[in-house]
Design brief:
46% of the residues are buried. This protein has helices at residues 17-24, 32-44, 48-68, 88-95, 108-117, 136-141, 143-148, 169-181, 201-208, 223-227; strands at 74-78, 100-105, 125-130, 156-160, 188-194, 234-235, 241-242, 260-266. By secondary structure, it is an alpha/beta fold. Helix 1 (17-24) crosses helix 2 (32-44) and helix 3 runs parallel beside helix 4 (88-95).
């Protein structure tokens, strides 16, 4: 999103994380640059599709937990990505139809698809903001958010596979803190984040040069680095885990094939 609040034109020549993720999940809403970037990463790290699928499954499980066990009925999903099976509103409203969800993403193509496909049920509400996590105050001040979610009541802030696109630790931590500070007691923070903790050193070095993926690259963080986003909050059992190990419900791949940490905590 531009500083004026208007959508930037869709640039099909540059790989974009949301479209690349869509490609890894088997979607069709991506361009040649996204597929080339995705293939280049997969050549270096062959388990990337497994990681992407397991991250998506984590999202579904954590939303189900939040609705069924934590009683959450409001969600702020930042870094929505392109629609895929088991979106936040589908899981949440499938359990409690009155749930309200605000999706946020900075890719105009995501917003086009979201408004067309991410339609909620009549009892609840589903809304969309085109904005950037690097400007959390703008997200919180948006009339779409304030008209959909009640900030005086508990909200789940979902930062699923998005913080690793903020390379500066201070800026990423500040964005999380601003969002969490604005939420009422009893709110939850959910984070999943790519990690280098289980990768071979040679793979880490090759991925870190960034030249193969386009101008928007991933910053890999250690478990401790991801845990820092939850500072001041109380972790939900089983704590910060490789996403496939967070309250698993089915057979899952070896953890060394899933390079994503995930967890939930409450305020």
């Amino acid at each position: 999103m531009t500083s004026s609040g208007l959508s930037a034109p869709i640039d099909a020549s540059e790989a974009h994380p949301a479209r690349r993720y869509d490609y890894w999940l088997g979607g069709k809403d991506n361009f040649a640059a996204d597929r080339e970037s995705g293939d280049a990463i997969e050549k270096i790290y062959p388990h990337i599709r497994t990681s992407a699928r397991q991250n998506r499954m984590f999202l579904r499980r954590v939303v189900r937990y939040l609705v069924e066990e934590a009683g959450i009925r409001q969600f702020l999903d930042v870094g929505t990505g392109l629609p895929a099976a088991g979106n936040t509103h589908q899981v949440a409203q499938g359990i409690a139809p009155q749930c309200r969800i605000v999706y946020v993403d900075n890719d105009p193509l995501v917003m086009v698809h979201a408004r067309a496909l991410l339609t909620g049920c009549a009892e609840g509400r589903t809304a969309y903001i085109e904005a950037d996590l690097r400007e959390p105050q703008a997200i919180l001040a948006d009339e779409t958010l304030t008209g959909t979610l009640d900030l005086a009541q508990p909200i789940a802030v979902l930062l699923v596979a998005v913080l690793h696109f903020l390379p500066d630790d201070s800026a990423a931590g500040a964005a999380v803190k601003i969002l969490v500070d604005a939420m009422a007691p009893g709110s939850y923070l959910v984070v999943s984040h790519a990690t280098d903790g289980l990768m071979d050193h040679g793979i880490i070095e090759t991925l870190s040069d960034g030249g193969h993926v386009g101008k928007t690259d991933t910053t890999l963080r250690s478990k401790a680095g991801v845990a820092a986003f939850f500072d001041g909050l109380t972790m939900v059992d089983p704590g910060l885990q490789i996403v496939s190990e967070w309250r698993p419900e089915t057979d899952r791949p070896p953890t060394e094939q899933v390079s994503v940490y995930g967890g939930a905590a409450y305020k």
